[in-house]
Design a protein that fits this description.
Helix content is 24%, strand content 20%. It is α/β, with parallel strands linked by helices and 312 residues long. It starts with 15 loop residues before the first helix and ends in a 19-residue tail after the last helix.
């Protein structure tokens, strides 16, 4: 038998009612802690800066053909940092494209012992999509994205395959301005004509130039009555006998702008390869486009007929 002075004396057994009180007290403490965490106002390290959400989500589309998405997102992030224009948040999913609450998972889920919220659309000033296929978003998320642009006057930038997304969501097509309808010439040295040299995104571009990239052909709802084409392919230098050419009007835009309600939208076919993202002309175009949708620069949207070269 242990002596009364032994350090290993058996502790007295707790009465059942005592145990219940302790459990209740712990529950109250945990609940209070969770409530405090939920009410805690997380500091904003980027207060006063423009914030851009960049979504590179290709898992519902042709992933292997668009490996440049990583370099694209990194380039856009660096352009924002280096110029001090915006802070970019890079995501490969659409979780933050919502006006609803965003929480972590596991211990970090709402109500968990380490619950922590995430950002949502209320935090951002513009969204950039490099997406493909029927990108996964709930009906509420789709409603929130359109309202973010149309009702709240925020910005949207569509990179390359963003026009090859959400074919079953016609409101998205109306917002973005047109859908991808093949790339007849794949990647080639494309002859380009600048139609709006006064627009900031065309800064430094000559009237005629050559860009090597995958150039798209577009279908409805694309219309020059609804979008302001900044630059297009010079049809007089294209092989229009290509079996994949569908446009009889020979109109092949490579970049356009439009308004959507109170918001601003920019779209471009450029961005297929790593090499094009290293082209200073393309970097300037996207940087100035983001600045425009952020309302850091001003330029009117002016839909106009196609610009043709003399004699063509």
């Amino acid at each position: 038998m242990l002596s009364p002075s032994s350090p290993y004396r058996r502790c007295p057994r707790l009465r059942p009612w005592t145990t219940g009180v302790l459990i209740a007290a712990l529950s109250v403490c945990l609940a209070a802690g969770n409530a405090a965490a939920a009410d805690f106002k997380w500091p904003d390290p980027y207060a006063g800066k423009k914030k851009v959400l960049i979504v590179g989500d290709l898992h519902t589309g042709n992933q292997i053909a668009h490996d440049a998405v990583s370099h694209a997102m990194a380039t856009l992030e660096r352009l924002g940092r280096d110029t001090g224009t915006y802070i970019a948040f890079l995501r490969t999913d659409t979780q933050l494209v919502t006006k609803g609450e965003v929480w972590g998972s596991g211990d970090y889920a709402k109500g968990g012992p380490k619950q922590a919220p995430g950002r949502n659309l209320d935090y951002f000033d513009a969204v950039v999509f490099y997406t493909n296929g029927e990108t996964e978003m709930t009906p509420q998320q789709k409603h929130d994205l359109l309202g973010f642009i149309h009702d709240h006057g925020k910005g949207f930038v569509a990179v390359h395959t963003a026009t090859a997304s959400f074919y079953s969501w016609p409101e998205y097509g109306d917002m973005i301005g047109g859908y991808f309808d093949n790339h007849p010439w794949s990647v080639f040295d494309a002859p380009v004509i600048v139609e709006r040299p006064d627009f900031p995104a065309m800064k430094g571009w000559p009237h005629e130039l050559t860009l090597r990239d995958e150039m798209y052909q577009y279908r409805a709802p694309y219309s020059r009555d609804k979008v302001d084409v900044l630059a297009s392919l010079d049809a007089s230098k294209l092989d229009l006998s290509n079996k994949n050419v569908k446009r009889t009007d020979q109109d092949f835009p490579i970049a356009w702008v439009k308004t959507y309600g109170k918001g601003r939208v920019f779209s471009s076919t450029l961005g297929h390869s790593d090499q094009v993202w290293d082209d200073p002309r393309v970097q300037t175009m996207y940087l100035e486009a983001i600045k425009w949708v952020l309302r850091l620069t001003e330029a009117p949207v002016q839909p106009h007929p196609a610009v043709r070269k003399a004699g063509s």
